[in-house]
C-alpha cells in the first residue's frame, strides 16, 4: 500500500500541492508556538550580576492553589522577597557560602534631575558584589554616606574616586561620596550602585527580608534539600538570569502564557484549514476512487490508500514545516521585542521537543482529516460508482449537519456570556464564540450557501447574460464547491474583525469608565513611580496614593481549579473624594491595611458580602486573607479588587506609588513639591490611566492575530487556486461547445464576486453578533468601538485575495488548448 501511495503522490503532484502547503504552514506555526512556550521555561539572557554564583535563591513567583492540577498555576508579576534567616540555613551546607543581596531603585541624577545612566540603575549592598564578581578597579569599599559605582556608570557620570554624585532612591536625591569604582566581566544590562551594608538595609526598607541569596560552593540539589519546606525558588545555570532581571522573569511568564493561548488558536485554525484542504483534495479525486470501487477495491482499502497518501505528504510537509518554525519563532521574537514585550537580548531556547511535537500534531491533524474525508468515497456502492462520481452529491451527511447546527447554537449561546462577564474574559469569549460560529457554518456551509445561491442565482442569470447564466448554473449545481471557497475567506474576515474590535471596544470601555470615575483635580506621576512620602507632603487639599497592581485568584469549577491574574488597584481611605467607584455597599472610608473592596459582579460570583473574608494572592505571590469593606460597580476602571495603598505597595518590587490623586491643592505648591523629585510632574486627571499596558496588549494581539491571518490568507489562496484549477476539463468542454474564452473569464469573475460577497456577508455576520453583545455589555451600545476603516480594509483585503486567486488560476487553466485539456485525467 505504501508503494502504491507513493506512486500516486508522484503521479499526482499537483493534486497534493494544496494539502502540502496547508500542512507545511500549519506545522511551522505550531512549531513556532512550541519554541516560544519552551523559551518561556528555558530561555533568557546570560546572567551577569550572579555570574559567579553557583545557585541563586529567590522567592517563589509561581502560585499553585491547593487542589489544582499540574497546569493550574499563575506567575506573580512582582518579585517576592525571602527571609534573611534562610542565609544561615544555606550556610550550614558543607562548603557553601551564602551571600545575602538587597536590591532597590537607585538612580544617579545630574543637576537638572535627569538620570545619567543610559540603562536601568539599581542599588545593592556591597557584600553582594562578589556574586558577579565585581572587583575594585580603584578606591575602597563604601562606608555610610559613600558608594561604589560600576565602571560604566562612573564614566557616564563623569566622576571618579573622591567625587560626589546625587542618587535618588525612594526619596529626594541625596549626595554621596564615591569611595570606589568596580568592574565585572562582560557587558552589563543594568547599572549598579553599591552601598554599605547598613545603608543598603535602610534603603531596602524591608527588615528581615532579602531580595535574593547567592550561593557559592554548593549545587542546586544540596540547597533544595536544605530549603525543601520553604516557599522559594532555587535557580542554577541559565535560570539565574530570571532571578537577576525582573524583565526576563516577566518575559518568560508572558511567553509561556502567550504561546499557550496563541498556540491553542493556531492548532485549532491549522486543523480546520488542513481538514478543509484535504476534503477538497479528496473530493476532486472522486472519479478515481469510484473507479477503484467499481473494479473491486474494498472500502477499507480505499480508506487505507487515502490515509497512507496523506501520511506520506504530511510527514514530508511536517518535517520541512517544523524546521521553518524556527524562522517563524525568530520573527515573532523580533516583533515582540519591537513592541516591548520581550527584551532585545532575550534568546529563544530551541530544541527538538517543540519541532517533534509540531510534526506529530501536523501528521495527526492530517490523518484525522483524511479519515473524515475518506468516509464518503470509501462508502460508494460499486454498482453506482461511476454515476455517483459524475454528479456531485447534492447534500451533506446528517451527522455533519447535526454537528454543525449544534456548534452554531453553542456559538450563539456563548455570545451572550459578555453580558454577564465583562473585561478581558468577556472579550476572549467573544473571539471564541466567533470561531465556534465559523466552524459551525463551515460544516453547514453547503446547506446555508445552497439556500443563499437559490435566491441569488436567478438574479445573476438575468443581470449578466451568458456569463451570469453559466455562473448561476455552476453555483446551483456545485454549492459544496462554492462553500469550500467561501469558508476560508469567511474565516479570515470573521477572525480579523472580531479580534480587532473586541480589543478596541474593551479599551474604549475602560477609558470611558476611568474618566468618569476619577474626579481628582490633578495627578502626580513619575517616570519610574512616585515615592510613597509624596502623598504625605501635599498641603492645602486632599490626596490619595494610587498603586496599580495585580492579584491572583483561584476558583473551583467542578473538579478543577481555575487560576487567574486580575488587575487591581491600591487606594487610601481618603480616596472617596477623588474617585467614584460606584459604591454599592459599604464605604471606602473603611479601606485600611488588611481590608479590600470588591467589584460587585465579582463579589456576587464569589458570594462575598461586607464583613466576609476573601482569599487570594498579592502581586508578589504572597497569600492574602482580607476583610471585605465595600463593593462597587466600576470594575473596568479599577479591576475586581481595590486594596489599601499600603498593602498594594508592600507587595511590589519598587515599593512606590503609581500616581498620586490630588483635590483642592494649589498647583504652584504642587509644582514646587514635585520639583524636588526628579522625574515627577503634575498633570490632568486623565494621566491616571495607564495606557502603556493597553497599547502593549493591543500590539501583542495584533502581531499574534497577524501571523494567524497570514496563515489563513495562504490557505485561502491555496484553496481557491485548487478549486479553480480542478475545473480545467470543465473549461475545455465549454470552449469546445462554443463558449468564448472571455465568456468563461467573465463567468469566473461573476463566481468570484459571489464567493467574495457571501464570505463578506457571513464573515461580517459571524463577527457582528458577538461584537454587538460585547459592546452592549461593556458600553451599553451595540456598536463596537474602533475605526470603520479597519473593517473596510479587511473586506477589501479579503476581496482582493479572493478575486486575484480565482482570476490568476482561471487564466492559467485557459492557456492550454481545449482539445488537449479535455483528454487529461481529472
UniProtKB/TrEMBL annotation:
Q: Which UniProt keywords apply?
A: Cell membrane, Membrane, Transmembrane, Transmembrane helix
Q: Which Pfam families match?
A: FtsX
Keyword Cell inner membrane part of the UniProt annotation = no
What residue stretches are annotated with the ABC3 transporter permease C-terminal domain?
A: 262-382, 703-815
- The regions listed as transmembrane in this protein's record are 16-37, 254-281, 302-326, 346-370, 401-421, 427-444, 482-501, 698-721, 752-776, 788-808
Main location as per UniProt:
membrane
Q: Where in the cell is it found?
A: Cell membrane
Q: Could you tell me the membrane topology recorded for this protein?
A: Multi-pass membrane protein
UniProt superkingdom: Bacteria
Question: What is the name of the protein in this document?
Answer: FtsX-like permease family protein
Species name:
Lentzea kristufekii
